[in-house]
Each structure stands twice: as C-alpha cells, then as structure tokens.
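Lecture notes, part 5. Sequence design as translation. It can be helpful to think of inverse folding as translation between two languages: the language of shapes and the language of residues. The source text, in structure tokens, appears below.
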C-alpha cells in the first residue's frame, strides 16, 4: 500500500485529508470473543472467498460487527467509533487469517477516498516503461497478466498491476494491490506461490499465484508508483497473429468492458462506513464517464490466441505503434 497507493492519496492538501485510526488488538486468552456474540443480522457478504460481515450492534455512533474471513472460521471482531474516528480490529491470538481484515480495512480506507475524488477502477493490468504507464486490456483470462509480466522481463518495465488499475482525473495510472497471477510458462522453478489450473477456450492454462510481497521478494520484481498514462494495448483472442493501431470505437468498447467491475467496487468502496469512507452516492457522483478515460494516447490491438501470447513476437509487432517497446525481444 505504501509503495503503490499512498503517493496518489498524498497529493490532496493536508486539510482535506480525512484522518482515521485503525487499531489491531489481540484477543486475550479467556476473554469474551466479540465475534461470537449471539444475535445479529448478516449485512454484507463480500466477493472472493465468502468473507462475511455481520452487524451485531449499532448505537450511539458505534458499530460492532463479527467478521468471518473464511466460511466456518471463528470471526474476528470489528468496532467502529465514528465520533472518535477509530476502527478497532480484535483477533484471537495466533489467528493469522483473521488478521487479514486489517489489510482489507486499509484498502477500503484508500480506495473509497480515491473513488470519491474522481478516480476510476478498471479491470486491466499495467506496467511502467520509462515513466509512462502501458495499460493492457482484455477479457477475463484474456492475456493481460501474460503481457504485463513479459513487459517486465523483456522491456525492463516496472510492475504496476496484475488485475486492477485506477485512473485519476488527470490521467494518472495507479496499480491496485491484489494477488498476482503469473503464467507458469514465464517462470523458472520456484517454491513460492500457489499453482492454479484454469481452462480457457478448451485449453489448459497454469498460473502461479503470489501475494504482492512474495512477488517482489521471490521474483525480484520492481514496482512503480503512480505515473502518467502512456499507451494502451488491447488483446483480441483472434489467432490472426497481427498487431494494428486501434480505432476510437474499439478502444471505447474495451474501456467500457474494463470499467464494469461491480464486485471489485463493492469490495473496496466501504458501503458500511467501516473506515469512515465517503458515501456511495458521493463516490458514484465523482466517477467520470468511461468514454474518453484512456483517450489521447497511442492504442493498439494485438490479435493473438491466448495460448500463443507467452512466446508471440508482440513487441516487434507493436514497434512503430506503441512508443518505448521497440527494444523488446
């Protein structure tokens, strides 16, 4: 979060920054487990893994919730004191999984405020090449990760995002920290990461999943802070094996698809006010239209079957269309 997100938040004047404190406490042995109090009404189930937040009490500006990070796991306790502008997370001793709620709450703090300040979230990957963001757009399992990691390896790019990026009102691109999925074909043997099998268009594909910290440490990947938008590459699974300049309509359709991320927005927009985030109505009002979001920079379409992307001569095909990729092998 410090490397990837804070610089984008820090541009606001100090008087405009919303201060909030997150406290993490360990449950004392023998103490009552706040997360297992009786009653309550389940108010929110988050996507990706069945995370559940159950409201236990909301009186006098204080909310108390049970937070189960995985189904069947004893919940942690969350207490939100809006008057003191403090959120307290209580986890059982040794509960490393429940402690992950601290990471979730930190992401909610930053993302909700960025969204309310006019940033837009896209389903995309991105790298920084010579201080400019190269953004890759494709459908789910469409090759975004493959091109991003090839760019790091072959162009000397700095990594920004594997799955989600945020675009600022001034065209600044910021990578959003999520788990990183590296195509197995692009890796040498490594003991770190979890191997995952998917089937895309009838073809088996294997990826290795990393946390951002594992990604940096195990693979020696350099990360980039927010940078200006430089170019856009769209991936089309057509097996034609060509690269061509993109027309405006093609780019607009690709951006519109990439902007449809309702589950991801639910995950980061703080609908319950757990970190004092802006109201959802304020975030929606600040969201710029998808049209024109990535306009004004070179854009190209790569038509290569997804299974061929790890070795296709993509950079040579993009030379002359996309700046700063000509030296790719």
């Amino acid at each position: 979060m410090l490397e990837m997100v804070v610089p984008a938040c820090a541009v606001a004047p100090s008087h405009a920054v919303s201060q909030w404190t997150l406290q993490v406490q360990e449950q004392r042995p023998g103490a009552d487990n706040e997360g297992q109090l009786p009653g309550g009404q389940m108010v929110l189930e988050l996507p990706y893994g069945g995370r559940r937040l159950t409201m236990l009490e909301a009186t006098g500006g204080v909310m108390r919730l049970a937070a189960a990070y995985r189904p069947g796991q004893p919940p942690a306790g969350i207490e939100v004191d809006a008057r003191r502008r403090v959120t307290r997370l209580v986890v059982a001793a040794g509960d490393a999984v429940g402690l992950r709620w601290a990471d979730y709450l930190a992401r909610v703090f930053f993302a909700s405020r960025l969204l309310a300040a006019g940033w837009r979230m896209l389903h995309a990957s991105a790298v920084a090449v010579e201080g400019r963001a190269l953004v890759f757009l494709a459908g789910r399992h469409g090759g975004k990760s493959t091109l991003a990691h090839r760019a790091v390896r072959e162009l000397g790019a700095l990594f920004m995002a594997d799955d989600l990026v945020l675009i600022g009102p001034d065209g600044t691109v910021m990578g959003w920290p999520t788990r990183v999925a590296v195509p197995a074909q692009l890796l040498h043997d490594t003991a770190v990461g979890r191997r995952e099998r998917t089937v895309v268009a009838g073809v088996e594909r294997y990826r290795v999943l990393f946390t951002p910290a594992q990604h940096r440490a195990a693979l020696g990947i350099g990360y980039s802070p927010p940078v200006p938008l430089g170019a856009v590459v769209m991936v089309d699974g057509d097996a034609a094996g060509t690269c061509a300049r993109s027309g405006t309509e093609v780019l607009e359709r690709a951006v519109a698809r990439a902007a449809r991320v309702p589950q991801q927005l639910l995950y980061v927009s703080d609908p319950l006010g757990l970190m004092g985030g802006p109201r959802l109505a304020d975030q929606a009002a600040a969201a710029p239209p998808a049209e024109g979001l990535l306009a004004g920079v070179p854009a190209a379409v790569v038509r290569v079957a997804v299974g061929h992307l790890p070795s296709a001569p993509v950079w040579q095909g993009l030379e002359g269309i996309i700046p700063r990729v000509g030296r790719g092998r």
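The translated text above is only one of many valid answers, since several sequences can fold into similar shapes. Residues 27 and 33 are 7 Å apart (CA to CA).
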